[in-house]
C-alpha cells in the first residue's frame, strides 16, 4: 500500500495490485470506514479502480481541531485503521443484463468479429460466460466500467470516428465492457443494446449499479425483449 499527497488538501491510498473484485471491496471498505466515522474535516472521498483519494479541509483541521500537520495526521490515521473485510463470492447478488447483440443494436460487432477471427456465437459465448464486476464508475452518471472480460475479447483500438451512441449501448473499450447510460457521441465499439435503464434521475436511488456490484450478460433476440423506443440513429 502506498500513501501520498495530492496537492495540499488530499491524500491518496494506492493499493498496488492487479484490479480485482477483492481490491475494489478493500477500497470500498476504507471508504465506508471514513463515512461511518464522519470526520468533520473530510470533504470528499473518491474511489477508483486501484486507489482512493480522500479530500480534507486543511485549514479547518489546523484552526478548529488543533492538527498541526493535516497530511501527517491523515497518513497516520490511515495506517492505523484495521478493517474487517468480508469478500462476497461473485456468484452472489448478480445483476443480469439482457443484451441484443450485433446488427443495428451492435453496429461495430461485425468488424470486431473480423478482428478476433471469430464467429458471432463464439463471441456471445465468451462475452456472456463470465461474471463482471463494476470496478469504476464514470464518464456519465451511473456508467459502469466492467472488469472480468475474457482476454480473447480485449482490443487495442477504438472506432474510426465519433458517432451517436444511445443510452443502453453495450460497449467494449480496451480490457473492459461498459454500458452507456445517456445518449452521447463517442468512438467506443458498440456490440449490443440493453433496454435496462441504469440511470434514472427521477428515482431516489438513481443508479442501478454501484461500485463493486456483480453483473452477468445474457443474450436475447430482439423479439424476446421490450426494447421500447430503441433507435440506433440520432433523431
UniProtKB/TrEMBL annotation:
InterPro entries: CT_C_D, Cyclophilin-like_dom_sf, PxpB. Keywords: ATP-binding, Hydrolase, Nucleotide-binding. Pfam families: CT_C_D. It comes from the Bacteria. SUPFAM superfamilies: Cyclophilin-like, PH0987 N-terminal domain-like. Residues 1-209 form the Carboxyltransferase domain. One of its GO terms (molecular function) is ATP binding. This is Allophanate hydrolase. It comes from Staphylococcus arlettae. The gene is kipI_2.
Amino acid at each position: 500500500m502506498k500513501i501520498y499527497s495530492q496537492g495540499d488538501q488530499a491524500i491518496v491510498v494506492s493499493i498496488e495490485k492487479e484490479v480485482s473484485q477483492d481490491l475494489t471491496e478493500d477500497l470500498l471498505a476504507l471508504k465506508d470506514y471514513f463515512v461511518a466515522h464522519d470526520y468533520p474535516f473530510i470533504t470528499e472521498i473518491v474511489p477508483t479502480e486501484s486507489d482512493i483519494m480522500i479530500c480534507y479541509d486543511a485549514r479547518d483541521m489546523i484552526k478548529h481541531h488543533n492538527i498541526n500537520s493535516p497530511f501527517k495526521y491523515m497518513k497516520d490515521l490511515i495506517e492505523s485503521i484495521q478493517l474487517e473485510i468480508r469478500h462476497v463470492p461473485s456468484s452472489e447478488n448478480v445483476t443480469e443484463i439482457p443484451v441484443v447483440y450485433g446488427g443495428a443494436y451492435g453496429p461495430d460487432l461485425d468488424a470486431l468479429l473480423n478482428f478476433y477471427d471469430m464467429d458471432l456465437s463464439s463471441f456471445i459465448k465468451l462475452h456472456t460466460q463470465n461474471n463482471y464486476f463494476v470496478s469504476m464508475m464514470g464518464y456519465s452518471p451511473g456508467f459502469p466500467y466492467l472488469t472480468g472480460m475474457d482476454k480473447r475479447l480485449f482490443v487495442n483500438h477504438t472506432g474510426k470516428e465519433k458517432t451517436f451512441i444511445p443510452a443502453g449501448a453495450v460497449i467494449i473499450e480496451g480490457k473492459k465492457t461498459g454500458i452507456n447510460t445517456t445518449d452521447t457521441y463517442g468512438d467506443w465499439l458498440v456490440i449490443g443494446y440493453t433496454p435496462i435503464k441504469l440511470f434514472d434521475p427521477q428515482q431516489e436511488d438513481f443508479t442501478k449499479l454501484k461500485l463493486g456490484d456483480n453483473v452477468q450478460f445474457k443474450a436475447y433476440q430482439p423479439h424476446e425483449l421490450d426494447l421500447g423506443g430503441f433507435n440506433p440513429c440520432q433523431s
